[in-house]
Amino acid sequence: MKMNNFNWNSRKDFERMNQETLPSPEKENAMNRTWKLALIGAMALGLTAGCVDQQPSLVMQGSVVGNFDEEIGGCEYNLDFSDTRLLNTSGFINLADFENGQPIAPGEARLGAGRYFFSAIFENRLVDSRNVGAEGSGGSGGGFDGLYQNSNDIQVTSATVTLREDANTFRINNQNVAFPDLSRERLFTMLVQTNQGTGLVNIPLLNGPRDAQVFEEFLASTVPADEPLTFIVEIQLHGETLAGNRVESNRFEYPLQICRDCGIATTPLCAAGGS
Predict the structure, then answer these.
(1) How many CA atoms lie within 13 A of 42 on its CB side?
(2) Sequence ranges of the domains in the chain
(3) Among 43, 90, 158, 164, which is most buried by a count of CB atoms within 10 Å?
(4) Is residue 160 packed enough to be buried (19+ CB in 10 Å), middle (13-18) or exposed (0-12)?
């Protein structure tokens, strides 16, 4: 399995990662099983993932969790794609303590007003195009002239965050109350190599006060302040291969409980330190 090793040393670096580009392809070539990401954050450790559709060439496994590391000022991630113990099962937002957004880790600074992140781990299941149908010893592509670029590497460029009305209809006071369809596009850039190359990106599920206000108003009109509702958030990645073929990942469903003021802490981006 190909793993990448890079550090984000500040909140500024973290935000630039989500808004512009991620590390260069040279850094993507690092083959380490551990990513030390100097993030500002984490989530509670879970046992299994949410729902995953049939597996396409770009497969999203869920939201990975790391441990907060004081030495690097962020999270240390062991990205074993097959280990579902490294994934968190759901999230929680208490809007009463959400003025400055999601905590980096328990007791640590926060990520900005109205911001809550899903740390997506995903894998490129395509094979190296230079080895497909190769003639010559070792399957090295020796039968083809000029095949220097692996056209099956995937450039992931965005994610859609969707709440569908049919998945977010609640039975309240003997009536069906539907949360209206909501969809957001989150832009970023990351190159993911073939043969199970792995990527990780922090996708904002809520990306500011306006997003938080949508849920605040819906909850205020339906349930008491101390009663949470569980929303089903659907995340899907989009990109294209270096050959120009469009690629979409599976759709991943993430349960996100939200209350207005229920005395429960918002899920942090990183778990507390530990192995």
Answers:
(1) 28
(2) 11-129+150-259
(3) 43
(4) middle
